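Morning!

As promised:
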Amino acid sequence: MDVISAIHSRSSYRGKYDVAPVSREHLRLIVEAGIAAPSGCNKQSSSFIAIDEPSLLKKIHQLLDPSVIDCPPAMICVISQRLIAYRNVSFSVQDYSAAIENMLLTIVALGYQSCWIEGHITDSDAIGRKIADLLGVPDDFSLVCLLPVGRALEPVKRIEKKTFEQRAWFNGFMHKENMNCND
Amino acid sequence: MDVISAIHSRSSYRGKYDVAPVSREHLRLIVEAGIAAPSGCNKQSSSFIAIDEPSLLKKIHQLLDPSVIDCPPAMICVISQRLIAYRNVSFSVQDYSAAIENMLLTIVALGYQSCWIEGHITDSDAIGRKIADLLGVPDDFSLVCLLPVGRALEPVKRIEKKTFEQRAWFNGFMHKENMNCND
């Protein structure tokens, strides 16, 4: 799938997943896309745990209380270290976000669906830490995001977004030139 | 260009740019890729200003002191609002990072090069604010990133990254199963 089609096909899927397993070859392609993402000062602060063991998927899914997704046949856990790029500046959020976007696009290109699950697991009830403990992740890493991976059994819905004109301009903020930008 | 090739072709380019202009059609495709990125609770906290006016490009380039890039024939300025998703939680960094990665992949797919310039303009000397003022960006937005856009005149260098085995595992942190992951 070409880049632009993948970018515009991606959306957050919260429906039922087919139970058919995701191949190791595909999981590796997805994670390699995450690894290839840029990172501030090349700190490569994010790491990845791909889950395809059914009993482990079930345990993780049980920790997601309330459950926000159907139990998928595979999952990518994104773990992040707050590595310092310079002085006290860390780009770890930027690093893992770019990696997640690369993985979401690869997931869509391979015919699967997913959803960026972050707030639900990094919130005060610390579900991410419980999942991290289950996976043996040390305390200096945070489990910041789960990406389910599987084939959709339900229609993929598109969320409504603001228009180009509401979010983008040429050569100045809310510049009028925007109105005839096809010159 | 297919997604996986674009992801693995992208790298941070800091060489000379061809002076040939970037078409409005291409700039719009790049910005539309940013707009299509996911955002936490669909807050769509990032906006974009595409610059292709030569005198404005020169002024922005002069504000980048020390200059970290050659003056490109076009540029995308990413502006961000710290919008609250819920309670006091904002996903604005995640939002603009996913948008930037979508735009970088589109830039590469269209045959251009770029570089994620963030720390240099958001640092204590507030170059981003000076550029924002030049573009009429209100104070409730931060100019968080510049993406130059242009054709490379020099070879594109690849930065060395850690291996898959150093950053990814199956079914557990540093799980040994990783060693024979091609089953």
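Chain A has one domain: 3-180.

Hope this helps with the figure draft.
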